[in-house]
């Protein structure tokens, strides 16, 4: 069955967009739990990762 995607709502409604992308990539509650559990480890590394990516660009 094909699901209708409201492009206006997709660009204006953050929750709708999150749900759309979550379905598309099969992002589950388990993934959210894993991210929340590892947040204290990952958060300090984000600036280093972003800087590294920008240097490669």
Automatic annotation (TrEMBL):
Ranges for domain Globin-sensor: 16-57
Taxonomy, superkingdom: Eukaryota
Molecular function GO labels: heme binding; oxygen binding
UniProt protein name: Globin-sensor domain-containing protein
Source organism (scientific name): Adineta steineri
């Amino acid at each position: 069955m094909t699901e209708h995607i409201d492009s206006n709502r997709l660009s204006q409604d953050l929750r709708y967009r999150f749900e759309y992308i979550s379905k598309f990539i099969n992002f589950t509650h388990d993934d959210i739990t894993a991210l929340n559990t590892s947040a204290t480890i990952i958060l300090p590394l984000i600036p280093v990762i972003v800087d590294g990516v920008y240097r490669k660009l």
